[in-house]
Amino acid sequence: MATRSQDLLSVRPTIPSAKINDNMSFDERFQNATLRPIIKMQHDLFIIVFRNYIAKHKNVFYDLSIPKQLAYIDNAIHKDMKFRNSVKGMIIGQFTIEEYALYIQNSSALNKRMMNIVKTRLIDSIQLFKKSKLLKAV
């Protein structure tokens, strides 16, 4: 029977550009080996979660200019602690026990890295946050 760690690792995508070598810092190695694959795997969930965040905040996001939408995403990720902690939980919940043990050694720096990656992914997917007719019914 497979262990939880084996199951988690088996479903993660591989990222060929996420190189790991001996010259990397611990944080960079953890980012490339753990954070990036998990965030890539959770991408669709993050899109849905952010759409819900927009809706819960009265859809003002849709009336903003592109630069202000980018600032809105940045603010949600870096300043809204409830949203930030929710996103962190979606990532940390995908850690193996061993990865969690490594994470808690330098969680502050790793949290910054994970939030910056999520922010970049949301910004790169901004076209997915167009107002749709479905949202008007909500």
Describe the structure.
By secondary structure, the chain is mainly α. It has one domain. 67% of the residues lie in helices and 0% in strands. It has eight helices and no strands. The chain has helices at 4-11, 26-41, 43-56, 66-78, 81-92, 97-103, 107-124, 133-137. α2 packs across α7, α4 (66-78) packs antiparallel against α7 (107-124) and α5 (81-92) packs across α7. 14% of the residues are buried. The model has no long low-confidence stretch (mean pLDDT 93).
List keywords for this structure.
single chain; elongated; 138 residues; mainly alpha
Reported for the largest beta sheet, the result is:
none
Structural class: mainly alpha
Low-confidence blocks of residues:
none
- Radius of gyration, whole Å: 16 Å
The coarse silhouette is elongated
Element-by-element helix/strand order: HHHHHHHH
Number of strands: 0
Whole-Å distance between the termini? 44 Å
Compute the number of helices. 8
Strand content: under 5%
Question: How is the secondary structure organized here?
Answer:
Blueprint: H1 4-11, H2 26-41, H3 43-56, H4 66-78, H5 81-92, H6 97-103, H7 107-124, H8 133-137
Helix pairs in contact: 2-7, 4-7, 5-7
